[in-house]
Amino acid sequence: MVTHSFLISVILVYRKVCMKIAIIYSTKYGATEKIANCIGNVLSKANEVLFFNLKKDSIPTLENFDVVFLGSSIYMSKITPKMDSFCKDRDSELCDCKNLHLFLCGMDEQDAEKFKAELYPESVRTNAKSIKWFPGEYHLKRMNLFDRLLLRICFKIKDDVIRDYEGLTRNFPEGV
């Protein structure tokens, strides 16, 4: 969940100056995109916020942005291959970002701290001002057959799980 205090801290730091913010994300079934949009909606009140979906968009040089957010869904205990490649390809740029914030979206809350500590490359994690985990969603109709069967057989999930990301992202990120 994005906490209210996290977002307020971020807003307080940046509300005095209009900043250019990049929210770069990779999503499997759409929950990470919803989170990115919620974060952007809060920050866009006083800033220029640009969204980049790694599946569709080309990403400009990061030095043009005052703040950069990276968000990825977690699938099979890993960030998406697109996000992993982006982090590796842009490692030096990400390490030069003065205001880098990371977020993850996944269903396994019990492993949230482990994922925050391991999934993004170490150099990127080390430079990040914050790393936040958000609970994922299940939209069974959007899922491929394998994923639906896995959820039904292994985890006994038969219904969609929908989240209120507006409430969860209200306080993320602190210090932006």
Overview of this protein structure:
There is one protein chain. The protein has helices at residues 4-14, 31-43, 81-89, 91-96, 112-118, 122-127, 145-154, 165-169; strands at 20-26, 48-53, 67-75, 78-79, 100-106, 130-135. With 176 residues, the chain is an alpha/beta fold. Strands 1, 2, 3, 4, 5 and 6 form a six-stranded mixed β-sheet that branches. Strand 3 (67-75) and strand 4 (78-79) form a beta hairpin. The longest helix is centred in the first third of the chain and has 13 residues, at 31-43. It starts with a helix and ends in a 7-residue tail after the last helix.
Task: Please give a quick description of this structure.
The chain has helices at 4-14, 31-43, 81-89, 91-96, 112-118, 122-127, 145-154, 165-169, and strands spanning 20-26, 48-53, 67-75, 78-79, 100-106, 130-135. With 176 residues, the chain is an alpha/beta fold.
- Helical segment count: 8
Mean pLDDT: 82
The coarse overall form would be globular
Helix/strand-derived class?
alpha/beta
